[in-house]
Amino acid sequence: MNRKFEDNLLRLAFEDMSPQEAAALEREALQDPEAALALAQYRQMRTGLRDLAEVPSDQLSKERLREAILARGLTHEAKPAARSFGWSWMPVMAAGLAVLVFVYRPHAGTDPKIASHREANPFTYPTIEVPPSGPVAMNSSKMIETAGVGTSSASFMSPSVPAQTVAIVTHPNRNGLRSRHQARNERSLNGLFAFSGTGTGNVMESVIKPAPSTSGADTATMASPAAATPPASPIVLIGNEKDGSTGASRATEVDSARNVVVGG
Amino acid sequence: MLLSAVKLSICLLATWAQGDLTNRERTAWTRILPSTVVIGTADKPQTVGVLLDDSGLFIAQNDGISTDIMQGVANGHTVKLSRVAVDTATGLALLQATPWAWGDGRPAHLSEKSVSNGQQLFVVLPSGPIRAEFVRSDRVGVLTISRRMFPLNELKFESPDGATAGGIVFTQQGELVGAVSATLQSPSQNQTQNAFDNGGLRAIQQAAAGNGGAGGGVRPLTTPQTLAPKLAYGPGQLTTAYTVGLAVMRRVVEGFRSPTHEVQHPSIGIFCKDSLGSGALVEKVRKDGPAAIGGMQLGDIIQSIDGERIKSQIGFASTMLKKEIGQTLAVWVLRNSLQVRLTIVVGKA
To answer: Å from B199 to nearest chain A CA?
Structure first.
């Protein structure tokens, strides 16, 4: 098979000759096995080249990708990315919010928020938001009578209008959760008072019994349990005795005011 | 009697003439002198009062007044002083001078602005005026007789020979600041002064013994307290004194000047001490007092008043000082581990 015959086979495979020439050349090629094989390879090559021309849209070359980026920009691609970010982080954000609510929840010592229109009228039952420590019940608190008061020289006058009082009762042990502040005060109270109630139920079921104490009206300081207490700021105690050199009342500085009884 | 009065006046003027005061202080003192009264006898003056109004009402520290009717010298005239009212919370008394016909004295004017640290003041004592220095106004004190807590002004002055009880404190412009309620001697200053006194005395005695020759040696100090002042020189010992704060003083003066001469301090009728945790532990509740009517009980721990957190009994007393009589308070207390809200109307003490 010479080169001219091979070129004719190539033209035949790519249909680059007249039908008469193609039929004559094909008959001639079928008689020669080497020429028939070459013709088949050339036709297969042509078919492959045709397939290469039809490149799928998703098989982009670098050039086509660059042209597409320059032509369309990147703004349209941001939207689906943002939606994906929001959905994926939603549980994380919810968990963080729950942690914040738990950390900054109101403690037992803070005032629950009270409706302002109720606050203006203290002689009606206030509207109170439920403290986080548990449900709320309302009861009228009892008046008390105390003995042993009256040795002070200060005289008190009752207000002309008696005030109704509202007791807010909470259940601190609901779900077994209590604030540290509440637990600390409870420990403090247990050190000072004896409760007849269990301490876990309604306030009306418990009776507060004051611990035996000295006559506070006659002494400036009173004994207290030796439990650790936060340091207090120094104050000046002005006693009744006179200073020998100045003739004025003698003042004494005390480092801690924790045992000083103060009226008000 | 008249001789005694003149003698006391001369004593006061002699102190003024000693030149211890600046020209401004002398001017203020000249204006204040007719408005002051020295309570007691000429031989034993006890305390000082200052005129509150034209009718002859004087305010003075009650500590120096032993009886309801006293003798005094005002503007060179002997007067009779009768006790009209006493504010037990602060220990100040209101006195009426009779007869009161001398119009030279002008009622004292209470200082409108707070005194700053380091400001020069002068204190009118029974022995005369003496310069003082304002130290600080952030001290709090408790009068054990009334169990009331008040903000205190602290001032220092050189210890005079006579008593300082009831000294009236003025600014250099002659405005009233307060009355000396109590005095405190700083241990450190006393130790320093005593060490100097004893050391100087011992040195002099050693020198005297050395000059004496025979035997040498130091004789024991038998009475250093009486000898030391004579041998010491330089600035004398300092006296730390306290007066009630200006706001409380203003309340007292206004109460004394009122027709009833009654001083009204806000109170709900309880006594508190510091709680082991945070808050003020109620120790006593006055029967039929505002707190008792409002439902407060023994053992309650006051945690907040009108939204203001109460950390201790001092905080409670400070908060109460800012309240007005008749004001309704929302008080949250901790009772048996439970929060209780009380509504209490402020009364007066």
So the answer is: 22
Contacts 24+ apart (CB under 8 A), B77-85: B77/B5, B77/B102, B78/B1, B78/B2, B78/B4, B78/B5, B79/B37, B81/B37, B81/B39, B81/B49, B84/B57, B84/B261, B85/B256, B85/B261, B85/B262, B85/B263
Q: Strand A249-254 vs strand B182-184: parallel, antiparallel, or unpaired?
A: parallel
Tell me the pLDDT of chain A (264 aa) as tens digits.
788 888 888 888 888 888 888 999 888 888 888 889 988 988 888 888 777 666 555 555 667 667 766 666 555 554 554 555 556 778 888 899 998 888 776 554 444 433 333 333 333 333 333 233 333 333 333 333 333 333 333 333 333 333 333 344 333 344 433 444 444 444 443 333 333 333 333 333 233 333 333 333 333 333 333 333 344 456 888 887 887 777 788 888 887 777 788 888
Q: What contacts 24+ positions apart, CB below 8 Å, involve A177-181?
A: A177/A133, A178/A108, A178/A133, A179/A105, A179/A107, A179/A108, A179/A133, A180/A107, A181/A107, A181/A108, A181/A109, A181/B277, A181/B278
**Which whole-number Å values give the CA distances from A86 to A95, A96, A97, A101, B219, in the listed order?**
14, 15, 15, 21, 95
Residue B337 pairs in a beta bridge with none
CB of B318 less than 8 A from some CB of A = no
Question: Which residue from A150, A199, A208 is facing B299, i.e. has the nearest CB?
Answer: A208
Q: What is the pLDDT of residues B168-181, one digit of tens each?
A: 999 888 889 999 88
B180, B274, B301: residue with CB nearest A258: B274
- Token pair 């729950």 is at which residue? A98
First to last CA, chain A: 126
Instruction: Name which of B63, B271, B338 is nearest A203 (Cβ-Cβ).
Output: B338
Which residues 90-129 of A are in CB contact (within 8 Å) with B?
108-111, 114, 119, 122-123, 126, 128
Task: Judge whether B301 is closer than 8 Å to chain A, CB to CB.
Answer: yes
For the purposes of burial, counting CB atoms within 10 Å of the CB of B147, is it exposed (0-12), middle (13-18) or buried (19 or more)? buried
Whether B78 and B97 have beta carbons less than 8 Å apart is answered as no
| Chain B residues closer than 8 Å to A246 by CB | 159, 163-165, 183, 239, 241
- Closest Cα partner for B320 from B149, B178, B152, B181? B149
Interchain proximity B340–A216, CB inside 8 Å: no
Q: Is B158 on the interface with A (CB under 8 A)?
A: no
- From B164, which residue of chain A is nearest by alpha-carbon distance? A246
Please state whether B261 falls in left (phi above 0), alpha (psi between -120 and 50) or beta. Answer: left
What count of Cα atoms within 13 Å lies in the side-chain half-sphere of residue A162?
7
Supply B222's token pair.
Answer: 């038998």
pTM for this entry: 0.55
- Which residue among B285, B332, B336 sits closest to A206, beta carbon to beta carbon? B336
Closest CA relative to residue A148, chosen from B285, B313, B301: B285
A177 vs A105, B199, B208, B287, B294, CA distance in Å? 12, 68, 81, 38, 31
Complex prediction ipTM = 0.74
Residue of B90, B274, B337 to mutate, testing the A interface (most A Cβ within 10 Å of its Cβ): B337
